[in-house]
C-alpha cells in the first residue's frame, strides 16, 4: 500500500513530498521551496525507469533538468524528520499536478 507524506527542511526552506511504495521507496517525489512554495522537483520512478530502458542519456538529462532527480534511497525514518506528516493521496495529487504544470509538463 502506498504512503503519502511530507517533511520540511528549514535550512533550505524546502518541503519534500513523497509517494512511497509498500517497501518505503519513492514512487514520486515533489520539492517545493521558498515563501511561494515554488515547485523545484516533480520526478516519477515510472518515468525514470521508462527513460532508462527506452531512451538515451540525453533524454534522461533533459528529464532531470526539467523535473529533478528522484530520491534513490529508502525513505525509512521519515516520521522523525522536521515537519513530518502524512498527507492524503488527494493532497499529493493536487501538489503533483501543480508541480508538473509549473515545471512544464502534464500531470
Could you explain the architecture of this structure?
With 107 residues, this protein is of the alpha+beta class. The chain has one domain (3-103). It has 3 helices and 5 strands; from the N terminus they run E-E-E-E-H-H-E-H. The chain has helices at 45-54, 57-67, 89-103; strands at 3-9, 14-20, 26-33, 38-44, 85-86. A 5-stranded antiparallel β-sheet has the order 4-3-2-1-5. It is globular. The two termini are 21 Å apart. The model has no long low-confidence stretch (mean pLDDT 92). This is DUF2283 domain-containing protein. It comes from Streptomyces koyangensis.
Biggest sheet strand line-up:
4-3-2-1-5
Number of structural units classed as domains: 1
Q: Order of helices and strands, N to C?
A: EEEEHHEH
Assembly state (oligomeric): single chain
Distance between termini? 21 Å
Tell me briefly what this model is:
The protein has 107 residues and is of the alpha+beta class. 34% of the residues lie in helices and 29% in strands. It has 3 helices and 5 strands.
Topology:
Elements: E1 3-9, E2 14-20, E3 26-33, E4 38-44, H1 45-54, H2 57-67, E5 85-86, H3 89-103
Antiparallel strand pairs: 1-2, 1-5, 2-3, 3-4
Organism: Streptomyces koyangensis
Protein name: DUF2283 domain-containing protein
Amino acid at each position: 500500500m502506498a504512503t503519502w507524506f511530507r517533511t520540511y527542511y528549514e535550512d533550505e526552506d524546502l518541503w519534500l513530498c513523497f509517494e512511497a511504495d509498500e517497501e518505503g521507496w519513492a514512487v514520486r517525489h515533489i520539492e517545493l521551496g521558498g515563501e511561494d512554495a515554488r515547485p523545484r522537483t516533480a520526478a516519477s520512478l515510472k518515468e525514470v525507469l521508462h527513460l532508462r530502458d527506452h531512451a538515451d542519456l540525453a533524454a534522461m538529462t533533459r528529464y532531470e533538468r526539467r523535473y529533478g532527480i528522484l530520491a534513490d534511497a529508502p525513505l525509512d525514518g521519515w516520521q522523525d524528520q522536521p515537519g513530518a506528516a502524512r498527507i492524503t493521496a488527494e493532497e499529493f495529487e493536487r501538489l503533483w499536478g501543480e508541480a508538473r504544470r509549473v515545471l512544464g509538463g502534464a500531470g
